[in-house]
Amino acid sequence: LRSPAGSKQTILNFVDRLRNLDPSTTFYREDARGEAIDAAALCLFGSTSEATDATFRKFLGQPIESSDATKRRDHLMKCPILPTLAADQRIIPLSALLLLSASSNHHDDEKDKDKDKDEDELPGLGPGGLPSLPGIAGPGGAPPPLHRRLRAVPLDDIEVEAESRRLFDLDEDQQVIYRSLPRMSVSLREAEVPDGTDVLTTPRVFVLSAASLDGPWKKLYAEKDPSEPDDTELPTPILPKSEDDDEEDNPRDDEDAIMDPDIKHSMTISNLNELEMHPTSCYGRRGPLYIVACAVNVSTYTDGGKFKRFMPGQEVAPPPFNDRCLAVTGRCGQACMHDQQPMMYCNEDGYIDQKHLVGEIKVQDNKQLPVYMFVYVLLFGFCVKVIMLCPGIFSPYPHYSRYDPKLTKSLKYIVTCTPTTAGDENKSTTIRNVVGCISAMPRRIQCRYHVVMLDETHRSEMKVCFQRLGDVVSAIPAAGGASYQDNVTDFFGAWCEETKKLDLNRIGGRVKQLDKAIMDRVCGKAAYRKMCKEYSWAALPQQSLRRLEQALDAFEADIANDNKWTRQAMHMDDILDWTPSDRTCMLRMHYVARAKPIEDERTNRVQHVAPGTWYYKAPISGLKNSDWLELRKTAKEMVYGREDPAPFEHLVPLRTSRGKAGGLNFVDNYMVQVSERPENRYVGDREEQNYAPSLFSIADARHQFQHDFMASTIPYFFHPSNALNKHVAFTQCPQHFHESQDKTDYLDTNNASFFRLNCMIRNCSGGVSSCGTNGTWMIDHRKDPDPNGMEPSTIWETQRSRVRDKYSHQKIFEMVERRTFHESCKVEDTASSLQAVVQGKYSQFINRKLSYGMAKAAVGYLAATQRWAEGGVVLSLQTLTSIEEGHWMVFATLVFFGLFIFSLIRLVSMEENAEWVVVKMHLVSKEFTDWLLTPVFQSLDWFVRLLWEGNLLGTGLKDPTVYTHMAVQMIMWLMMLCILLFFLWVLTVLCKAMRIRRYFLFPDQLRWCGRLLISMDNLTYFVWFWTAFFWIGFNYYTAMTRSHYHFQFEGMMLFMAVVNFLNWGMIISNAFRYSLEQSMEANEVAHLSMDNIWRSNQLFYMTAPVQLFSIIVGIKEFLRWKFYGMDISFWEGGDRGEAAIRIVKYWTLLLTVGPVIAWSCYFIFANKYMNAWAACVVVTIIGLDVLHPCAYLWVGDSKLTNEEAQKMTWRQALTSSKWWKRRIYNAVLNDTLTGILKYVGPAYFLLLPVTCLTTTYFGVNGAFMMVAATQQR
């Protein structure tokens, strides 16, 4: 840029104006020297408002006035010029406009005389050597080497001109002429964008020239024609005009600049327009300063090289830089300081040694421990999901379509048993259950129907209440055109209808006195009035009705005297039978209280005969079933030191199980004895019915069968041809608590997701597990005793003892009472289901509300969850260490499941050209696999390349063949899996054709294999408790620490879209298919609602620590059972439920408070970490998931009423914990917030494909939750 030097005063005025732009920044040092200057640096970043635009236009075309400098300063002070990379290694985005020209040492001859006058000191101005653009000669003809062009210019008192000449090897008589725009790198930091929408956002360089500082200023380069193609040509200089040029043909450039300075005098910064600036001024902070310049390739960034994803103040990774830079160099020194002290990594000449900037680069990929852990957890979750979904590929077993009284002729008898203990199970609660059992008696039944009240607490008052109920049944009239049995069915059906929606708050043990209306419903008077009104009982003889009214009055008086219990002779069995006077009636009722002697607290409660236990003697020969109860009356306690060896008698333990299973087995044995009584045997053409199977239904305390329970259940035990199907082991109906609505069922008491989804899927292979209550079992007829009396097979059986005999030190055979239901653990229902599966039998699921329960406090469900998990651990260990018949199939299923997991792990970790296992095992040749897979590879390679060209596989991928290899390996794995399944199918078909089951147990159906998978799942579901801990910890780890794993955005979005479609399609199709079948069959539908899915997701997080606690306790219980023979089939009081509730309370509180901590860390320091924001969102969703259970556990017991709260003063309220509990309860546990929160999770899943475009971490979260292990019963 050629221009003569201006006068000293003009230069000083201009520099003074520059210094006034930002008093806080020293642009120039006053101890530097120079001759001439026309260099100026101005940031133009602001609104193009009329006032500002006029100022800039005036500056571009006229000399600068002091009045304009003040207006311009207000905008210019907001954009101080800073280095590209500051000392704290933060990248500064390029977003400034710079007006710049350069100094020159050239003078006209006529100005030489003024040289001495102009050599006075000027404040901070000097020529400063600047190199030229590539391909254009700089001072001296050729550009100097890079290391010389980047040398630092000293800032102390030197001759700047001499330093410039030394820097570029110029002689003193050589002219310094700049023929092109020097390279430049400009950055802006802490700039404030003014208000308004018309803001200049494109970085531009205005290159103007002038003969003097007073102007006029003219553009240096010609504008580029927009119509011309974009190329890499250098800007075209504008040649000086000759005097002969016509002014009309050559309009003034400054006029164009005034008309449109944004376009006419600007050029967009590109690689060929860069300017290097060697400042002779001090800028930046004082002290050590490192500046690293990094050249990158535009194609490296997905935003077209505009660096939109970089933020001001963003941290960069430390050296080495050659992992992201095409070229890199660095400067260092004490900025703005005269004394240059030695600095680490800094050479004497002010350069950073290259060995500190570049080095060996470790390839960054996802092969890291957190990623491996995540992938393997996904594989485990996927395998568990396979177990859950595989049974759904079959169709449910067919059954007879309707109830027919003739079906009952194929049964010996039907038993409905309602066990009862203390607590809330008072007279009202127990009678409600018994009423339901009686009402369930099918019409015109043709086999005995037994209703059993099993009182495990020997309450004398309960026995009297049972007698009063029997009096009511006996008083029902047999008139009105209907039989006595039909009138009993109608009356108890109406009675059941009146009591089915009662709850524990109205009739439970804590209720001191029943309300009059409630009492009428409980004692049957409401049902009696209904019968008189709707069934025309009012027309019956008054004498028969008066007898019934008297029986109801007596029954009401007895119920009113509730919650007062006396217990007598608990070491003896207490049994009371009721039989109708009309012998044609099939109803029989029994009160049963098995012996419950007080045991020595010093001794272990074992299941065999030992000191401290009760036992009775049974003769070795001549043993009869009719002697059973009499023998039990002779029971006594074995005392240490006074043992009775009894060499010619069996010592039979009085109670092998002190839990529910022991009571059920006692009732089953008693029913066998009752059925053998002469009055209960079938004669004539029905003789064969004495040897038919029987049905045994269980109605747990607080669960009431409805009047159509048996009529709906019986057809499921028969083939479509109405023949009895002996392969059906049991049927199961869902639990239903009418007072626990889905939206207020905070702890999932209804377990709706299990019954409405999992059970429907499992039922397709006949693998629904028994849940205890609402189950009906088919019990085969027991063979008659051996004529010699040596092998009792109806009441007694022999087993090998688990502990060694004290005398022989061997595990001897001992006699025990026969057990239909397992007594080995607390989950007798699951254990009995497992036994049925290994025997080749299956179950039927009836998805109808055939039973109404009364829910306990919701926290009781958590205690039950702990009990189920503990029992599952014990049962799993018992099964896997057992040698009983059929258990090997469960173990083999577990082995195959392990191999399935191993194959998946190998599939995702094998190399591209790894040799197949079948080739290594020489099952097939490598040539055969190549011949088979080559066409597949070629076809897939075309599709993969299509995805690659669409950037769906990532922009950094050089060769997409790796994805082709992955796809081929996946197809090969699927082929091998299909071959294995085909082989298994062929094997089962052959086993069925050969009837191999007659010789030993082996699956002869694929659905049997599906049931084995379900059984294995029941035995191992608690093993996956750690997945919840892993996922919660993984998110908090990502939210608070630096993570380096990442995935491709578009690919993750496509992946999540497919996964969401398949997952929700599976849920909706399975739920809809089964509900449609139920609607066609019974016109009743149990929908899977969004609340059910939400509650199931809550349980996944809530119960993880409870399952860990249960595993520890379960292992301990198993060891006690295995080595000491202890009875672990029962629980007393709260057992470990209180501990489980406390664990869940504090765990959910931690998950609720955790998001607050995570977000605090994010705003303090973690906002610069990759994926931290997405991880905070995920932990927030987890916290919202458990917010309801947490609030319910902590404040759900609030007893403060509205009246009491209104009477409180503000001081009393703020200091009352009850008031705060109520406020939190109302704020969190309300319908509005519930309605919002239950859709947060589903909405999040639906939006996952879109959120993956912001960060792929959302896709990682979604993939995990899709396959996360679900809570199983």
Description:
- The model is unreliable at 1-12, 14-168, 174-189, 196-204, 242-274 and 785-792 (pLDDT under 50).
- The strands form nine sheets. The chain has an eight-stranded mixed beta sheet, with helices on both faces.
- The protein contains 41 helices and 28 strands.
- The chain is elongated and about 130 Å long.
- 41% of the residues lie in helices and 9% in strands.
- Helix 9 packs parallel to helix 41 (1257-1267) and helix 14 (516-523) crosses helix 16 (542-560).
- With 1273 residues, the protein is an alpha+beta fold.
- 37% of the residues are buried.
N-to-C terminal Cα separation, in Å?
A: 85 Å
Strand content: 5-15%
What's the count of strands?
A: 28
Indicate the radius of gyration in whole angstroms.
45 Å
Largest sheet: 8 strands, mixed
The whole-number mean of residue pLDDT values reads 74
Give the strand order, joined by hyphens, for the main sheet. 16-17-15-14-21-24-23-27
Helix content: 40-55%
Globular, elongated, flat, extended or rod-shaped: what is the shape? elongated
**Poorly predicted runs:** 1-12, 14-168, 174-189, 196-204, 242-274, 785-792
Structural class: alpha+beta
Count, helices: 41
Task: Provide tags for this entry.
single chain; 1273 residues; alpha+beta; 8-stranded mixed beta sheet; 4-stranded mixed beta sheet; 41 helices
Which helices and strands, and how do they pair?
Layout: H1 8-19, E1 42-43, H2 50-61, H3 66-76, E2 81-82, E3 90-91, E4 98-99, H4 146-149, H5 160-167, E5 183-184, E6 187-188, E7 204-206, E8 208-209, E9 218-219, H6 253-259, H7 261-264, E10 267-268, E11 287-295, E12 314-315, E13 327-335, H8 354-357, H9 369-389, E14 413-420, H10 427-439, E15 448-455, H11 460-475, H12 484-499, H13 504-507, H14 516-523, H15 525-534, H16 542-560, E16 574-578, E17 587-593, E18 614-619, H17 628-632, E19 636-637, E20 649-653, H18 660-675, E21 694-698, E22 703-705, H19 709-713, E23 728-732, H20 752-762, E24 775-779, E25 796-800, E26 813-817, H21 828-838, E27 842-845, E28 851-853, H22 859-880, H23 887-909, H24 917-920, H25 926-949, H26 961-993, H27 1006-1020, H28 1026-1040, H29 1049-1082, H30 1090-1102, H31 1104-1124, H32 1137-1164, H33 1172-1185, H34 1187-1195, H35 1202-1207, H36 1210-1214, H37 1217-1228, H38 1231-1237, H39 1240-1246, H40 1248-1251, H41 1257-1267
Parallel strand pairs: 4-7, 14-15, 14-21, 15-17, 23-27
Antiparallel strand pairs: 1-4, 2-6, 3-12, 7-10, 8-9, 11-13, 16-17, 18-19, 18-20, 21-24, 22-28, 23-24, 25-26
Helix pairs in contact: 2-6, 9-23, 9-41, 10-12, 11-16, 12-15, 14-16, 20-29, 21-27, 22-31, 22-32, 23-27, 25-26, 28-33, 29-41, 32-33, 32-34, 34-37
